[in-house]
Amino acid sequence: MFYLKYRPKTIAELDNSRVRDQIKKILESKNLPHAYLFVGQKGTGKTSTARIFAKAVNCFKRSSIEPCNHCANCLAIASSSFTDVIEMDAASNRGIEEVKNLIRETSFLPMSGKYRVFIIDEAHMITTDGFNALLKTLEEPPETVIFILATTNLEKLPKTIVSRCVKVNFGKGLQKDIISMLKRITIQEKLNYQNDFYSLIAKHSDYSFRDAAKILEEVSMQKIKSVEKLEVFLGIRGKSNLLEIIEAKNAKKTYEWVEEFSQNGGNFKNLIEDILEELRIQLLIKKGVKIEDEKTADLTFSEISRLIKLLMEAYQLLRSTPIESLPLEIALTEFYNVSPLVIPNEARDLN
Ligand SMILES: Nc1ncnc2c1ncn2[C@@H]1O[C@H](COP(=O)(O)OP(=O)(O)O)[C@@H](O)[C@H]1O
Ligand SMILES: [Mg+2]
Ligand SMILES: [Zn+2]
């Protein structure tokens, strides 16, 4: 898997630029803080960074702030067999007993490293009792202990916990950083794509490095090389195309288009998202909002809003449908059932 194979192993490889600089500064500082809070959306590098951090502070051959990735400690951490790095998933270990066990662990001296590093993932899942038990240890941890709490939901953490940690904000993956990651992977995989190709993947990755790496892997497996093919794959091919057919109220052509899209392996989730985005813009235009470079669709206000509602329902149904194209086909059928297939322009303007 690309996203595991190319998981960053050094600080320099962290493509999340804001985080990279912050982590560098922390590791260079004379007094290393003992508690950290890594906050950010999924797939932005919290776990990867926590492991790099654990290596950096425990590396035998540390010449700079970077871990060497070759010494016994670095190798043990990489293979999750290092007794001084303890990872706990708070989603499944959230109660007071688990936290107490963890606190007991902090009283032991490191076996082979300099620090015992406790990485608590999904930290917001810890119970109130658990947090209370953790508070004191977090405030005055033993000299040889480092805590790294990772969370996607900062607002669910008690303020008392937050205020005792150095916060590192991972945010969402920036487009330019995700592109750097994709290029780092393709250079090593000896793949070569146009710049637009990378931007398009980054745009469809939900701001997640992990998702972007997954798309790239699928695309390379499918031997997709051109931007046009990538558009089909991502389901954004001809979104305007489909909208134009809908505007013309050509039912037969509409179903043919959807069938072809389906045959080509198009992604219906992305397709519906893109059409909704376009319809939203059309709604704004109808309300007099000026939007550059947008042409006005040949649909009335009520048609646009009805189409939006139907497509939102179709979007929900995507999760449970046995046939991917069906929700969209039903939505369009309902749309045409109410909207007369051919109506004169004058009549339509009265809508
Ligand atoms: N900053 C980054 N630079 C490069 N790749 C990244 C970065 N952050 C995440 N990734 C990719 O995403 C995958 C998941 O990252 P992970 O650290 O598990 O994220 P999180 O813990 O925030 O969900 C990694 O294996 C890696 O492929
Ligand atoms: Mg993680
Ligand atoms: Zn090392």
From TrEMBL:
Known catalytic reactions: DNA(n) + a 2'-deoxyribonucleoside 5'-triphosphate = DNA(n+1) + diphosphate
Species classification: Bacteria, Candidatus Roizmaniibacteriota
Family: Belongs to the DnaX/STICHEL family.
Family matches, as SMART domains: AAA (SM00382)
CDD domains recorded: AAA
The enzyme's E.C. designation: 2.7.7.7
Entry keyword annotation includes Cytoplasm: no
An annotated GO BP: DNA-templated DNA replication
UniProt-listed Pfam families: DNA_pol3_delta2
Name of this chain's protein: DNA polymerase III subunit gamma/tau
PANTHER family: PROTEIN STICHEL-LIKE 2, REPLICATION FACTOR C / DNA POLYMERASE III GAMMA-TAU SUBUNIT
This protein's UniProt keywords: ATP-binding, DNA replication, DNA-directed DNA polymerase, Nucleotide-binding, Nucleotidyltransferase, Transferase
Organism: Candidatus Roizmanbacteria bacterium CG11_big_fil_rev_8_21_14_0_20_35_14
GO cellular component: DNA polymerase III complex
Domain spans labelled AAA+ ATPase: 32-174
Subunit-structure text: DNA polymerase III contains a core (composed of alpha, epsilon and theta chains) that associates with a tau subunit. This core dimerizes to form the POLIII' complex. PolIII' associates with the gamma complex (composed of gamma, delta, delta', psi and chi chains) and with the beta chain to form the complete DNA polymerase III complex.
Functional description taken from the UniProt entry: DNA polymerase III is a complex, multichain enzyme responsible for most of the replicative synthesis in bacteria. This DNA polymerase also exhibits 3' to 5' exonuclease activity.
Keyword flag RNA-binding: no
GO MF annotation terms: ATP binding; DNA-directed DNA polymerase activity
NCBIfam families to which the protein is assigned, alphabetical: dnaX_nterm
